[in-house]
Amino acid sequence: MVRPWSFLDFVWIWLGGQVCSTALAAVGLIGGDQDLAILLAFAGLYVGNLGVLWLVSRRKSHPELGFTIEASDVWYVGLGLVLQIGLLLAFLPLSNLLFPEGRPPQEISDIISEADTLPLQIGLVAAAVVLGPVTEELMYRGVLLRALQPRGRVPAMVISAMIFSLVHLSGLGTEQILPLAAVVLPPIFILGLVLAWLTQRSGRLGPAIFLHSGWNLLAALVLLLPTEMLEQVG
């Protein structure tokens, strides 16, 4: 019996990450260690996503998601970094128009500002550059894109990119949510389109994983900068 990947599979995988992340973060907070709570939240997110993905894949007749990597994929890291910087510059006029006094803090900004210990910095960098891209590409360009393929290549690209960008709304906080969404979500939607196109073009996830890693590399570099320098830039 053929059991293809479905949108419901994606929903279960996403929910698994949310539940596990919340549970482990609560454990850290109960212990009174905020750094541990942040690390456990990220760890729980990826463990939950990958754990449910593994469980669901065991019921599939063809569980392959194209998770293959080649040496030539490494150059996509640079492409992802360039794409991130290019889109930041492209949307800078809109950002300045909506936020003339500077963009309000986002959830990720709060996390970065609290990353004042080496273990937390290392954990967040690993999450941003390695764990996040691998997990999210398996979910969005692996499961979700495959589930949407029967609708056609272009609709699958667009719908998967829309869902990919909308999910990131949870990381914007609640302050001035609509202006923030207008600035933040379009670049993420474009990223989702590029990642989906690369996956369809290559037939595997390697290029998308490395491009996604390069995109996140900018945030990782910010984490590695001295606090004094970040305060001067801010």
Main attributes of the structure:
75% helix, disordered C terminus, 234 residues, 2 domains, mainly alpha
Structure description:
The chain contains ten helices and no strands. The protein is mainly alpha-helical and 234 residues long. It has two domains: 63 residues, no CATH class; 167 residues, no CATH class. The longest helix has 31 residues. 33% of the residues are buried. The C terminus is likely disordered.
The fraction of residues assigned to DSSP E strands is under 5%
Class by helix and strand content?
mainly alpha
Number of domains: 2
Give me the Rg, rounded.
Answer: 18 Å
Instruction: List the total number of helices.
Output: 10
Arithmetic mean pLDDT: 85
Q: Largest beta sheet, briefly?
A: none
Distance between the termini: 57 Å
What's the total count of β strands? 0
Shape: globular
List unreliable stretches of 5+ residues: 228-234
- Helix-strand string: HHHHHHHHHH
Residues in helix, %? over 70%
Q: How would you summarize the topology of this molecule?
A:
Layout: H1 7-30, H2 34-57, H3 76-90, H4 92-98, H5 107-113, H6 118-148, H7 153-167, H8 177-202, H9 206-224, H10 227-233
Helix pairs in contact: 1-2, 1-6, 2-6, 3-9, 4-8, 6-7, 6-9, 7-8, 8-9
Question: What is this structure, in a nutshell?
Answer:
The protein has 10 helices and no strands. It has helices spanning 7-30, 34-57, 76-90, 92-98, 107-113, 118-148, 153-167, 177-202, 206-224, 227-233.
